[in-house]
C-alpha cells in the first residue's frame, strides 16, 4: 500500500516497482507499518487465547479445536499454552515493537526531518523490508508444521531450544523455523540500521547540524546504533543454535543431558552461553523498542504544549547514556541462572544507574508540561499516557534490579506486569502518538479526533486493569508460564486472573476503534493542510503527503533548531526550522 | 540528489562500509567470546595442528590487499575524483582483476584446508574446537565472497565510466576488502592461539 503521489514523481514506474518493490522510503515505511499491523493483530489474538485459558482453563474455546489440532477439542494443553506464549512474545517483540516504531515510522519520517530525498541506500532499504517479510512468513510457518509452533519462549533458552523434538511438541521443526526466522530478521535489521546511520550522517540538508536534528531523528539514529550492535550478536547466536540443532555441534547442550528418557547426543556445551549471547542482544532490544518512543514523545510534546522542550540537550544526552548503559546490564536477566553472586552485583549497579537518565528524561517531560497551554489532541493524550505507563512500569524495575528481591520475584507475574508496561504498552503508546501525529503527513488526511480520544481513554484504563494487578499477583507468588493455577496456594489468584482476562478482551476490542479510524481516515478523513499541528520541523514544510522526492525538487535550508516554540514567529508562536527569520536571543549560541 | 555539488558531498558508500565493518567486527567479537566461554566450560576441547596451507592462504589474502592498494584507481585524491581519465582507469583496473583472482585462490585454499582437516577426522561436530574452526572460516569466507561480488560490481561500473560516483563506490569496496584481509589475520591468530 502506498500514499498518493503528486507531480514530483519519479519517472513513470511499473506497478510492482511503485507499490511492491518500491525504493521510496515512504512506501517502505508504510509497508513496515502494514506488516506490523498484521503482526500486532496476530499477537493480540494469541494473547486473548492465553488469557481466556488462564481465566477458565477447563472451558473449550469455540472454534480453536478446528484451527489448532494441538488444542484438542478447543482446550489448550500446557504445551500449546507455551507455544502460544512463545509466538506471542516473538511476534510482538520482533515484528511489532522493533518493526513499527523504528523501521516503520522511522523510515517514513526521518528523511523528511533531515531534508533528504531518500535513504542513503534505497535498494538496501527495500531489501530490508522484504527480508523482514520473509522472516515473518517463516515464523508463521511454524504454526503449520507437524507438532506446531515452538514452546521455549521468545528467549529460546538452551538446551531445550537446542536438542530437537525430544524437548516437546514444536521443538522439532517449529523451533528450527523460529531460529531461521530470527536469523533472517537479524539480517534485515542490520541492513536497516546501516541505512539509518549512513542516511543520518551523510544526507542531512544544509544547515541541519546534529544539534538541530529533531529529537525523533536523534532517537531513530541512536536506536539504529543500538540495533546494529545488538543484532550483530544475535545473528551469530542464532547460527550457533541452528548448528546445535541440525549439525550435531555442542555449543549450548551440556554432557549427559537426558530429555524424554533419551540421552542427548551432545556433550560439553554451556547453556549459560546462550543466555549471555541472547541477553546481550535482548536487553538493548528493550531500548530498541522504547527509544523511538522517547524521541516521538520529545518531538510531539513541544508542539502540543506550545513550549520548548525543557533541557533539549539533556534529553539527547540521556538517550545516548541509556544506549551506552543498555550494553552493561544484560546479566540482570540472569540473576537466578546460577551465576556468581558477585557478577549479579556487577550487573545490578548499572541496572540501577540506567534509571537515572530515564528519570531525568521523565522529569524534563513533566517539567515541559508545567504551565503549558496544552492542546489536548489524541497524540498529546498518548504522550501523557506514555509518561504515565513508563513511570508505572519503570518503578517496578527498581525492585527487579536488586538480586535479593529478584530472587523472590523472578519468574512471577510481577515481571510480566513490569515489562508489559514499560516495553509493551509504553512503546505502543509511542507508536500510537506517532501515528496520530504523522498520519496527516502520510496520507494527506486527518484522523478523527473524537474516535482517537475514545481510543485513548478506553485503552489507557484497559491497560492499567490488565497489567497493574499482575504486579500484585507476582508479589503474592503467582508464577508465570503456567497454563492453569491448580496448585493450592495459587487458586486464590484465579478471580483476579479472570478480571485481567476480561480487561484484556475489552482492551483488545477497543483497538477496533483505532482500526476503523485508521482505515476510514485513510480514504474519507478531512483533508489535511501542510502543517496541521503548527509544528516546526521540516516534514511539515512539504505537502501532505509529500511528493516522491520529498521536497519537490527543492533542498530545504535549515536555520533553527526544532525546539523554537513559545516565541514570536511570523507564522505564530513558533519558528519553522527552515524559516530564514532571525534567531531568538536564547538560541543564538546554538 | 545530483544537483548537489559532488565535491562537497559526503560518501554514503564509504560510511556504509565503515558501519558494516563495525557490525561484522561485533559479530566476530561474539564468536570469539563464545569460543572462549565454550573452551573454558568443559575439558573436552581438542587441540589439533592447523592445516599448513593456512599460512599460504594468509599470504595470498594479504597479497590481494596489496594489489588492490597499488591500483591508484582505488585511492584517487579528492581532486582527481571527477577527472580521472577513462583510459587510465581502465588500465589500472587490471590490478583489480589480480585481486579478484587472489581472492578466489584464497577461498580455494580454505576449501583445501577444510578437506585436509576432515580427512584427519575433524568434522564440524566432532569437537568444539573443530566446530569453531569451520564456523569462523566459513563465516569469514562468506563475508569475503560478498566482498568479491562487490569488487566485481564496481569494476564493472568503473570499466563503463570513470565518473566520480563509480570511483567512490570502488573506494568503499576496497575498504571492505582490506578489512576482510585484516579480519582473516585476526581469525588466523585466534585459531593459532586457541586451537
Q: Report the CATH architecture of chain B.
A: Up-down Bundle
Task: Give the name of the CATH architecture of chain A.
Answer: Up-down Bundle
- The shape of chain A is globular
Number of domains of chain B: 1
Q: Largest sheet of chain B, if any?
A: none
Please provide a written account of the structure:
With 590 residues, chain A is mainly alpha-helical. Chain A has a single domain, classed as Up-down Bundle (Cytochrome C Oxidase, Chain A). Helices cover 61% and strands 1% of the residues of chain A. Chain A has helices spanning 15-20, 25-55, 64-67, 78-114, 122-141, 173-202, 215-246, 271-305, 312-325, 341-353, 355-369, 378-400, 403-409, 413-443, 449-475, 488-491, 494-524; strands spanning 258-259, 262-263. In chain A, α2 (25-55) runs antiparallel to α4 (78-114) and α2 (25-55) runs antiparallel to α17. Chain B is mainly α and 195 residues long. In chain B, α4 (128-160) packs antiparallel against α5. The longest helix of chain B has 34 residues, at 86-119.
Core attributes:
heterodimer, A: 590 residues, mainly alpha, Cytochrome C Oxidase, Chain A, two-stranded antiparallel ribbon, 17 helices, globular, disordered N terminus, B: 195 residues, Four Helix Bundle (Hemerythrin (Met), subunit A), 5 helices, 0% strand
Helix/strand layout:
The complex is a heterodimer of chains A (590) and B (195).
Chain A: H1 15-20, H2 25-55, H3 64-67, H4 78-114, H5 122-141, H6 173-202, H7 215-246, E1 258-259, E2 262-263, H8 271-305, H9 312-325, H10 341-353, H11 355-369, H12 378-400, H13 403-409, H14 413-443, H15 449-475, H16 488-491, H17 494-524
Antiparallel strand pairs in A: 1-2
Helix pairs in contact in A: 2-4, 2-5, 2-17, 4-5, 4-6, 4-7, 4-8, 4-14, 5-6, 6-7, 7-8, 7-9, 8-9, 8-12, 8-14, 9-11, 11-12, 12-14, 12-15, 14-15, 15-17
Chain B: H1 12-41, H2 53-70, H3 86-119, H4 128-160, H5 164-194
Amino acid at each position: 500500500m502506498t500514499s498518493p503521489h503528486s507531480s514530483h514523481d519519479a519517472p513513470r514506474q511499473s506497478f510492482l516497482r511503485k507499490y511492491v518493490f518500491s525504493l521510496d522510503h515512504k512506501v517502505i515505511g508504510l509497508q513496515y507499518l502494514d506488516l506490523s499491523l498484521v503482526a500486532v493483530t496476530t499477537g493480540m489474538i494469541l494473547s486473548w487465547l492465553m488469557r481466556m485459558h488462564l481465566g477458565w482453563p477447563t472451558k473449550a474455546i469455540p472454534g480453536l479445536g478446528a484451527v489448532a489440532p494441538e488444542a484438542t477439542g478447543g482446550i489448550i494443553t500446557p504445551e500449546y499454552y507455551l507455544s502460544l506464549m512463545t509466538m506471542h512474545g516473538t511476534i510482538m517483540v520482533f515484528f511489532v515493537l522493533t518493526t513499527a516504531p523504528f523501521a516503520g515510522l522511522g523510515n517514513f519520517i526521518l528523511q523528511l526531518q533531515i531534508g533528504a530525498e531518500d535513504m542513503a541506500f534505497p535498494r538496501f532499504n527495500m531489501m530490508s523490508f522484504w527480508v523482514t517479510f520473509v522472516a515473518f512468513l517463516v515464523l508463521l510457518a511454524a504454526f503449520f508444521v507437524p507438532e506446531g509452533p515452538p514452546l521455549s519462549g521468545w528467549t529460546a533458552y538452551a538446551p531445550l531450544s537446542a536438542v530437537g523434538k525430544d524437548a516437546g511438541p514444536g521443538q522439532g521443526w517449529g523451533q528450527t523455523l523460529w531460529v531461521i526466522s530470527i536469523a533472517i530478521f537479524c539480517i534485515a535489521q542490520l541492513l536497516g540500521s546501516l541505512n539509518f546511520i549512513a542516511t543520518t550522517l551523510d544526507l542531512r540538508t544544509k544547515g541541519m547540524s546534529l544539534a538541530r536534528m529533531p529529537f525523533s531523528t536523534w532517537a531513530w539514529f541512536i536506536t539504529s546504533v543500538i540495533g546494529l550492535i545488538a543484532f550483530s550478536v544475535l545473528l551469530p547466536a542464532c547460527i550457533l543454535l541452528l548448528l546445535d540443532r541440525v549439525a550435531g555441534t555442542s555449543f549450548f547442550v551440556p554432557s549427559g543431558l537426558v530429555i524424554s528418557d533419551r540421552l542427548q547426543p551432545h556433550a560439553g556445551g554451556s547453556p549459560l552461553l546462550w543466555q549471555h549471547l541472547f541477553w546481550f542482544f535482548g536487553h538493548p532490544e528493550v531500548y530498541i523498542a522504547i527509544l523511538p518512543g522517547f524521541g516521538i514523545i520529545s518531538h510531539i510534546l513541544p508542539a502540543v504544549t506550545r513550549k520548548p522542550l525543557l533541557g533539549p540537550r539533556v534529553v539527547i544526552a540521556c538517550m545516548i547514556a541509556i544506549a551506552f548503559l543498555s550494553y552493561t546490564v544484560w546479566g540482570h536477566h540472569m540473576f537466578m541462572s546460577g551465576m556468581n553472586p558477585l557478577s549479579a552485583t556487577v550487573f545490578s549497579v548499572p541496572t540501577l544507574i540506567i534509571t537515572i537518565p530515564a528519570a531525568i528524561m521523565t522529569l524534563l517531560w513533566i517539567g515541559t508540561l508545567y504551565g503549558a497551554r496544552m492542546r489536548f489532541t489524541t497524540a498529546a493524550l498518548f504522550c501523557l499516557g506514555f509518561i504515565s505507563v513508563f513511570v508505572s512500569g519503570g518503578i517496578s524495575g527498581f525492585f527487579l534490579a536488586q538480586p535479593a528481591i529478584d530472587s523472590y520475584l523472578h519468574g512471577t507475574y510481577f515481571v510480566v506486569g513490569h515489562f508489559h508496561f514499560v516495553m509493551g504498552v509504553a512503546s505502543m503508546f509511542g507508536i500510537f502518538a506517532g501515528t496520530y501525529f504523522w498520519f496527516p503527513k502520510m496520507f494527506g488526511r486527518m484522523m478523527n479526533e473524537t474516535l482517537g480520544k475514545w481510543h485513548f481513554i478506553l485503552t489507557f484504563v484497559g491497560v492499567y486493569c490488565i497489567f497493574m494487578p499482575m504486579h500484585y499477583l507476582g508479589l503474592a507468588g503467582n508464577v508465570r508460564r503456567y497454563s492453569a493455577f491448580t496448585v493450592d496456594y495459587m487458586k486464590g489468584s484465579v478471580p483476579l486472573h479472570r478480571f485481567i482476562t476480561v480487561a484484556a478482551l475489552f482492551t483488545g476490542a477497543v483497538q477496533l476503534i483505532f482500526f476503523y479510524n485508521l482505515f476510514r481516515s485513510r480514504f474519507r478523513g478531512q483533508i489535511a493542510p501542510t502543517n496541521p499541528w503548527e509544528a516546526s520541523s521540516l516534514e511539515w514544510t512539504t505537502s501532505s503527503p509529500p511528493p516522491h522526492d520529498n521536497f519537490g525538487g527543492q533542498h530545504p535550508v535549515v536555520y533553527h533548531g526544532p525546539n523554537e516554540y513559545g516565541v514570536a514567529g511570523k507564522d505564530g508562536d513558533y519558528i519553522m526550522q527552515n524559516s530564514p527569520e532571525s534567531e531568538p536571543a536564547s538560541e543564538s549560541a546554538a | 540528489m545530483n544537483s548537489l555539488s559532488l565535491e562537497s558531498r559526503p560518501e554514503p558508500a564509504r560510511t556504509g562500509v565503515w558501519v558494516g565493518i563495525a557490525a561484522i567486527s561485533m559479530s566476530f567479537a561474539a564468536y570469539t567470546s563464545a569460543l572462549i566461554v565454550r573452551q573454558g566450560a568443559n575439558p573436552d576441547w581438542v587441540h589439533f595442528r592447523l592445516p599448513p596451507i593456512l599460512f599460504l592462504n594468509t599470504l595470498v589474502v594479504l597479497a590481494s590487499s596489496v594489489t588492490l592498494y597499488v591500483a591508484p584507481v582505488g585511492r584517487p585524491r579528492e581532486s582527481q575524483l571527477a577527472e580521472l581519465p577513462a583510459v587510465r582507469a581502465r588500465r589500472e583496473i587490471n590490478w583489480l582483476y589480480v585481486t579478484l583472482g587472489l581472492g578466489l585462490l584464497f577461498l580455494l585454499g580454505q576449501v583445501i584446508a577444510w578437506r585436509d582437516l576432515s580427512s584427519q577426522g575433524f568434522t564440524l561436530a566432532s569437537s568444539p574446537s573443530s566446530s569453531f574452526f569451520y564456523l569462523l572460516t566459513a563465516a569469514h569466507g562468506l563475508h569475503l565472497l560478498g566482498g568479491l561480488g562487490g569488487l566485481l560490481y564496481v569494476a564493472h561500473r568503473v570499466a563503463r565510466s570513470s565518473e566520480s560516483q563509480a570511483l567512490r563506490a570502488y573506494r568503499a569496496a576496497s575498504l571492505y576488502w582490506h578489512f576482510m584481509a585484516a579480519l582473516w589475520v585476526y581469525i588466523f591468530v585466534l585459531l593459532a592461539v586457541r586451537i
